[in-house]
Hints:
globular; Tetracycline Repressor, domain 2; single chain
Amino acid sequence: MTASHHTHHTHHTADPAAVAVLNATLMHVPFDGWSDAALAAGAADAGVSYDRVAALFPKGAIDAIALHSRLADAEMVAAFEALPEAPQKTHLAIRALVLLRLELAQANKDAVRRALSCLALPAHAKLSAELLYATVDTMWRAAGQQDTGFSFYTRRATLAAVYSSTMLAWLADNSGAMDKTVEFLDRRLANVASIPKATAPLRGMQAVGERFASAMLKNLGRRHAR
């Protein structure tokens, strides 16, 4: 199994109407959660007929959450590529990408928090793993890592552990300037000093990394191994 077998989700084309509804829905999520009510309100605000919502989001709000995550991945890459001087070293590129992903989500932090609560439900475990995989895969590729060998999954497993823990720190960071989040991320990256190579997660991350890689192989393996 190699990286070439994987679809790069960042570049998928989203329905403009779905994007419009999603963007309008975000302002309702703090009050209604990720729900049909929020989607209905978002559709009304976006001038999209409610009859179209079911077609745009067949599974309801969980589809909106998935679209929000994928669009955030694409926005992160666009912001990274627009940097006046993109970091050349891999670990610095990864650091910049993680921070950009979170900085861009600052305005909708409550929506992200509620989305994570939804994705934590057992029924959405597979989607949650797929979205996390898509995010870290996008980060590695944006950082210039196109590896297809043994380290393909261990790199992503290591970064998944770093990114997940940093996102939790970000959700708890009320500094406004993300100072605590930046400090937390820098500590995590220091603990994973081998992240440019990432051939084996350090002991503190190994269990999380192995579980993540195992889940990815189980959920995605059959589809991409053919």
